[in-house]
Amino acid sequence: MSAEERDAPLRKAQKEQFEHVEKLLREATSDVELWNVLENEVFSVIRRLNLDAPQFFAGQEDEATKKEEEKEEEEEEEEEGNPEEDSESFSEFQIIGPNYPSFMLIAMRQLRVDFPGSTLALALLPAIKSLGRGSYALGASTELYNELLAMAWLTYSDFQGIDDLLQEMENGGIDFDTNTLDLLDSIKKNALDAKSGRLGDGASAVLEMDRFKRGIRRLQRWRDEIRMRMETEAIRQAKGYEVQL
């Protein structure tokens, strides 16, 4: 049996869970209903897994060892011409692990787009963090932070919030990507348009305030730093490719 065939039942279980939860999220008619779906279908599972428990990852290693032993036994049985029926069973972690960040991203986008007045979008990242470092490492993603950055500007015009989110990405080891850079470029352009008066005198007056001037300067520093890192990484990868050739 090939590795792809062995992994097929797990991928099927992951896909079934994803489609089930995604359907419930899409069908939510209010932000509270959507949050209840997250609590019942996602957060409760992560809470039950207790990812920060010292024995958790040791247990996962034991499970992996057990699966490897079962695979070897299965291969021996096949060689002997006595294959047994597939009785794969998977842990909750194996199933929800790859789906968790996707669920968070779907929920964030839906809260932003379908329920723009909801404050629950601001509660999503704290909810992930409240479940522990393992939850944050598993559930927080670059895409999720990009959504939060967009919301911080489009909904609140909050330079300090943007700065805090970028610093949090830096501290948490969350990678910046081209979408992060594009967002910062768009925010800067929008802010400069407002400052020049193209968005009205009121917006121009607000952008002349010292705190907004400081915000634009911080935004520019982040933009320059992220661009430099991405260019450095692109050069490193190109050199690695040349070595392989």
Walk me through this protein's architecture:
The protein is an all-alpha fold. The protein has a domain of 99 residues. It is 81% helix and 0% strand. Helix 8 packs parallel to helix 11. It is globular and about 60 Å long. The chain starts with a helix and ends with a helix. About 4% of the residues have low confidence.
Portion of residues within helices: over 70%
Distance between the termini: 33 Å
Shape: globular
Counted beta strands? 0
Order of helices and strands: HHHHHHHHHHH
* Percent in strands: under 5%
Instruction: Specify the structural class.
Output: mainly alpha
Any low-confidence stretches, pLDDT <50, length ≥5?
A: 79-87
Mean pLDDT: 86
Sheet having the most strands: none
> How many DSSP H or I helices?
11
Based on CA atoms alone, the radius of gyration comes out at 23 Å
For the structure shown, list the relevant keywords:
245 residues; 81% helix; 0% strand
Brief summary:
By secondary structure, this protein is mainly alpha-helical. The chain has a domain at 1-51 and 93-140.
Strand and helix layout:
Blueprint: H1 3-27, H2 31-49, H3 54-79, H4 92-114, H5 120-130, H6 133-139, H7 142-154, H8 159-172, H9 178-196, H10 201-207, H11 210-244
Helix pairs in contact: 1-2, 1-4, 2-4, 4-7, 5-6, 7-8, 7-9, 8-11, 9-10, 9-11
